[in-house]
Amino acid sequence: MELILSNPIGLWALLGIPIVLLIHFLQRQSQEVTISTLFLLEQMQRESVEGRKFERIRSSVPLWLQLLMVLLLTWLLVQPRWLRSDSVQPLAVVLDNSASMTAFETEARELLISELEKLSGSVARTEFYVIESSLSAGNLYRGTNLDELKAALDQWKPVLGEHEFEPSLRVARNLVGRDGIVVLVTDHVSKQLPFDATLLAVGSQKPNLGFAGLTVKEEAGTSKWTAIVRNYHDAPVERQWFLASGNQRSAPQTIKLAPSEIRVIEGPFPSNTEFCTLHLEPDAFSADDVLPMAQPKPRMLNLRSTVAPVLAEQAAQVAGSIQTATLLEPESEQVPDITLASYNPISPRMPTGNAVVFLEHRIKQNRIFEGRLIAENHPLIEHLNWEPLVVRRSLQIPRRDADTVLLWQDTTPLIMLREQEGSKQLLFNFDLAGSNALKLPAFIVLVHRYAEQIRQTKPVLERKILETGQPLNLTISGVESTEPLTISFRSWDGSNNFEREAPLEDAARETAPIYPGYLTVSRGDEKILEASTFFADTREADLSQAATENRLAEAGNSLVERHTEQDMNWTLWVLLLSLVLIASWIWIARRNSQIYAGTGELSAA
């Protein structure tokens, strides 16, 4: 069985060996001098009593007894324990997958391996489980080989935003059972972790200055970028930045920010290019030191108004409020994306295709609809306040069974959504001219949401700027083929490039990559999306709260007690130590008595 010293501090007792040897070096051996008479003693040369000189060590019974006592005392103090050959310890490591951990990856790996080597030395066999806190990658490692575990740590990529650790700690506890050890490796200190997890925090307050936001807008026919730079440190930070486009780069410029300062830098978007990148001088946290940019190209909406003259003014206000939209001329033969139409109950006729339909009511009414306004749970209308809405009584647009009512007033449907044959129609079932709807933010927001839904289904190329991990909101419609999407990504430094296929049914669930770079989504030879992705999670970029704390020492002590057996002969060693101590005293006392006796005989002579 393997021997473990549960109290290595007890080895300091071995310092007693040189002390014992030093004492015996300083002892002087008595010399016998034979004389014929006592008067010659007065003529003997007196010895110096100022100090003793080192002499060669002499083997003696007290020396060996005292050395034996030091060894016995050391053995008792180190508290030896014997490792059981059948001991097995499950141990799960949960690696924090937050982006802030990129600043401490090296320290985390080195400290984790060092602590795992100590813990695995306390048991005959350790079963390791390594998972990420996001549970996105499954098990990074499962086995008993520590060298293989080290290699598996290279797959750990902490690039996500802030998230809860509880689900991953629950999984880790289920893997190792009640008696297993769960270790959370992170960069922040938590007072108490769920599921009896043990904290291994490796963070420190490192200075970080990075990009925190980006916009690109058209101004006077020229694209202009505006970037936000933030200093997360409590001291001034100075960095250089430059703009790169293809193989060209601007001259470096210096930016100095005061503690916790936020500043805006801006400039013209390079001509004859659709993509460029802003760079900051690298620091400890590199994710926000680069800012890929794309020149936005939104999907333009074509609008056509066919409303009755009585609603022409209101329709013009609605059309003017929709961004990146063009109102087609009446004689244009181009197919509109959205038609602004009116419905006359006396001469009923509904438009075809996507449309916003207003009720045409030529007869003025003074009676107001009464009753409680009730909004349905629908994405188009959620979180909108309709309480100030006032409408007058009028004829109604007939409701169909398949229509979705978005807003009720008592039992009267005021706003409905009609979906049929691949089109969506937003129906306002009240007299718009006789209401205050155009003055309500809820009305404008509802129209904008509807327009955005139609915009997302338009099969043309869109170019935009996304944050890492942001939903792509891909909606593929009007396509009979089942050919999958091709998603290509080019990281800004080429380190995380990939290309993969995605089924059409998964298009709505696709998100932007978690790395800064440039994204392209195609269907066959047709591109439907181009985008740049940049890191903008200011919570992860703030390293001011990072700290270090290691609570694995307590886990190591419990492992030693659980998987080892104490020395059952300790009482024998205590008894033997006592006997040696008594024997040493007896020997020294006997030796002194012989010296005193010899001195008395000499005096009598």
Count of extended strands: 30
Largest sheet: 8 strands, mixed
Mean pLDDT figure:
84
Distance between the termini: 65 Å
**Structural classification:** alpha/beta
What percent strand? 25-35%
Number of helices: 10
- Silhouette: elongated
Could you give the order of strands across the largest sheet?
17-16-18-19-23-22-21-20
Multimeric organization: single chain
Percent of residues in helical segments? 10-25%
Rounded Rg? 42 Å
Q: Which spans of ≥5 residues are poorly predicted at pLDDT below 50?
A: 46-52
Description of the molecule:
With 605 residues, this protein is α/β, with parallel strands linked by helices. The chain contains 10 helices and 30 strands. The protein has an 8-stranded mixed beta sheet. The chain has a 6-stranded mixed beta sheet with strand order 5-4-3-6-7-29, sandwiched between helices. Strands 10, 11, 12, 14 and 15 form a 5-stranded antiparallel beta sheet that branches. Strand 3 (88-95), helix 3 and strand 4 (125-132) form a beta-alpha-beta unit. The chain is elongated.
